[in-house]
Fold this sequence. Notes:
Elements: H1 9-25, H2 39-58, H3 68-77, H4 82-99, H5 103-124
Amino acid sequence: MIKRDIKDRNDIYIIVDDFYKKLLFDEEMQHFFEKFNDDATLHKHLNVLVDFWDNILFYSGTYGKNAMLPHIALNKTKPFRKDHFNLWLQYFYESVDKNFEGEMTEIAKNRATSIATVMKLKILKF
Length: 126
């Protein structure tokens, strides 16, 4: 398979769909995603993620919420650990690299690393 670079929302959907399949299958991670227990709820959430990444990568203005707030709230009932952030990044990288390569692909991974680092610092407070 010849890979190409990430170029649009459809490519982002490919990434987040594959990424969430990994997260939902992983016994260490799946408990964070219990509220996405049916296809319609999951599909809606994936589209929010596409909006988020479309804005992060292409400055589309499609996401205007604070992505940190739901994670802070979730941490109160289902505490995050450092290894959760490591798995999140591992699965994100795998989903990106499985399908794409190029400049925007590297930007996506770099921004994911930045996002995970900031979230880890704010949520774990170390």
